[in-house]
Design a protein that fits this description.
10-stranded parallel β-sheet, homotrimer
């Protein structure tokens, strides 16, 4: 873990992220963030979950962000190192960003790094009809197609390829090797990680005798502001309308979003999820890892799906849904799996007994 | 959705795709394709499924492709806008391609786009011993290895890397960032989307004391004509023979095809599927999303596997197979999952009752 | 399958890989490796599993590597072609590597290939503060960031991007289009296949009112020696500590390794697996294809998980675990799946019968 070369105080950190510091003690000399168990005296840590109370008590952290309620549960011995905030996890998130910015500046100013500019601005292929905003950074190998608009302060990392007639919103960051096909739109502050492909053809074919005839995918992909997409994801373009990801969604890695899908605002999707064509997912949903969602169905807002579940039909009530199969020692599983296949038989036998017992019961 | 700048008639469209137009009415002034619900008067739509009869009736589409049998089910009020074809979905597919070609031409001819040639033909690294056919297009960053043959009219998009001694069949289109390892062959009219890797090493290691010893993967990948592969797929090279994908297969995104797998003609595979080593899949199969297929087994022709099923042994009869676990409200699932583990106990208790009832029955 | 232009003998092959040849017969004139069923007289094959005894008996292979115990089970008719080794599969693995090296040399020396050097060494962007060891090969489009160390004899294929302050261990091979983010370390002899992304941001966000606030991922990825990673994998950087993959691990394709995960030495992971944040996997584990492992749990050494199982809690005993759902004909599955949901009802009815039978039993 990289540390800041100069130290900071908790007061500095909280003020930098726009929060108020309400503590009598100072907590100076911090250089990095750390988990409660790993922290040393130069580390700022946080406690946001009652389960870690004992870790907080034993922690060597120089300072610990804590809520009022959890503070009350800790002994006096640590109280001097506690700093009360409204939402410790959120403060930690904000401070992590503040530290990341400083680490970046620190890295850039290291000796030898000013011998040459970062290799941005060389070796990119930009079509003359494309329009680049103020402060755009293009790394080597970037390719930008005709008619595309790259808004202010966008950073396109090495070998990013943006097709024709696209828009990349202001302050977006595309990591190396992102591909955006023709006509797609990314909103402001998009973050897209390496290997992700946005706007590839949806999977549509019509059968003719002895072959599949491709259905040209004439729509595109429209992604609203503040969306982050992990690495190696595939977001397909729509067939006759756009595939849409709304404001503030967060997608992990290796996710498949098929053509014509709509995902509501602030929905988060864990890794390895596949969502089939024309599914509509509501806002503020949480989709667990490796979940599958079939096509042409609606999931309402505020639905949580636990990992490796398959959603086979629409869900019209908020709530938590599960469908995975439980893990067992292999020998036990063999028996359960065989019996699962025999459930209809078990039920028939149960029914027979019930019928019999009724007879027996009625003299 | 992009629209054609000039309008077309249904007669024009059908004739362009080689179908006959048998209607008395004309249906001029169309500019795009649309679904029944989204269509306006400039849109051509289609009805291929009885479930959408009411949508067709309410549709504002300028013209609707329909089969004879579905036409009969629609009221006279819309009949003027109906155009009978043998297979509406297939006609729609063909017309979508016809429109895509025109949209492409239209885009290329836009003002400003002729200021400079498309950036093809610059910045590619081609080994002198590679052979390029007529009309091949190479985008920036393309790398082609020694001894490779790129047949006529192939388009290699930005940063595609083709290894040594490969063949890319005529009229193929590789989107940006496709990687083809040494010795692999793609047939004519292949379409491969971004981020897909063809010919990476199969996963083979032998155990020696405290380490795994790699088995060199000496085979390659052989893909027949008319195959389309989506984005971010991995198709591994064979160990001692080739991994083979036969004519007309269609693969969606994020699919794993392990070494030595053979996939029969026209089989379609949905996203996130994994097929393990040396599996042989028949022709005309349909593999649902997130399915897993274990290695060293045979699946016959015309098998359909529904999403998120695991194929653990060979399938020797055509038909539809399923193995996913049903979705439930989380609380209900907790009970079912616990009981699933206790199925052997339930069966024992059932047996005990059956034994008892026999005794009771026989005086 | 490519063959050697010059022939070899079994004695040569075994000596080349450091094994002793203990046979009276010679077995000359071999040009390639092949499976028992596909082999011809120029092929060297192997028998390492009793199930293939009859294939060995029928094989046309010029020579067959075999263990003492399996040799005894074969008839005299083939004994002349058998060569006894301690571990036939391991000898086969080693010889496969020996042949691969020769095929590579053979390919490079083909006529026309010396017209020009391989395109290495041109078109790479290397920051002046990066340090390159002896014999490093850089293909076109390689980008190397400030402060990064590329050790001796590393080969970076086309368009590989290595960030700032990374280390790539000696003799590593990165195939085209690998991306390594800032600060990551790969040990000696790493092999990483195309499209794999190492060091992307872990998936961490804190909720604030109507948005998700990103948690900067300040850790990195540390990969020990002798690790191979397949194509299109995503290995995320840690939040406050490093994501760690220990010595000798082998990962297949399309695998997700989330932030802060630790994977013990020599563990092998099949394709399409997802491992969630902060999971710790032991050494010498074998994780089957499409398995999911939830976060914040421990799996001990020597655990095997069969394909498509979900690990929902820690595993503290070595052994084989399963959790997939069995495949059935779709009609049967419909019944079983419905009954699975009704298991609580089945159990209640069973309990009622048990209560009744107790009453009946006790006069």
């Amino acid at each position: 873990l990289r540390k800041l070369s100069g130290a900071f105080s908790v007061a500095q950190a909280l003020e930098a992220v726009g929060e108020t510091f309400n503590s009598s003690t100072s907590h100076h000399g911090l250089t990095h963030l750390a988990g409660l168990a790993q922290a040393d005296q130069q580390a700022l840590s946080f406690l946001s979950d009652r389960r870690y109370l004992s870790e907080a008590q034993a922690s060597r952290a120089g300072a610990i962000l804590v809520s009022d309620s959890l503070r009350a549960a800790l002994p006096a011995s640590v109280s001097e190192r506690l700093v009360t905030v409204a939402n410790p996890y959120l403060s930690f998130a904000r401070i992590s960003q503040w530290i990341a910015v400083q680490l970046e500046a620190q890295r850039e100013s290291q000796e030898g790094r000013d011998l040459a500019p970062r290799p941005f601005g060389v070796g990119a292929w930009v079509h003359p009809s494309a329009r680049l905003g103020q402060g755009v950074q293009l790394a080597p190998g970037v390719v930008i197609g005709a008619g595309t608009v790259i808004e202010d302060r966008v950073r396109l990392s090495a070998h990013c390829v943006v097709g024709r007639d696209c828009t990349i919103g202001a302050d977006s960051l595309l990591y190396p090797h992102v591909v955006i096909y023709d006509d797609c739109q990314l909103g402001a502050r998009a973050v897209v990680h390496s290997g992700t492909v946005i706007g590839g053809d949806g999977f549509g074919f019509a059968r003719a005798q002895e072959q599949w005839v491709k259905i040209a995918q004439l729509g595109a992909v429209r992604i609203a502001a503040d969306v982050e997409i992990g690495s190696n994801c595939s977001v397909d373009r729509g067939t006759l309308e756009d595939t849409v990801i709304e404001q503030g969604c967060k997608l992990d890695n290796l996710i498949q979003i098929a053509h014509n899908v709509r995902i509501g605002a602030r929905t988060v999707i864990a890794a390895c999820v596949g969502i089939a064509g024309s599914a509509r997912i509501g806002s503020d949903c949480m989709i667990g890892g490796s979940v599958g969602i079939l096509g042409h169905l609606d999931v309402v807002d505020k639905v949580t799906i636990t990992p490796m579940s398959l959603v086979m039909s629409g869900l019209d009530k908020p709530g938590v849904y599960s469908g995975s199969s439980p893990l067992q020692a292999h020998r036990d599983w063999e028996k359960s799996a065989a019996l699962l296949r025999n459930l209809p038989d078990l039920r028939s036998r149960l029914r027979a007994l019930e019928a019999l017992s009724k007879k027996t019961d009625q003299p």
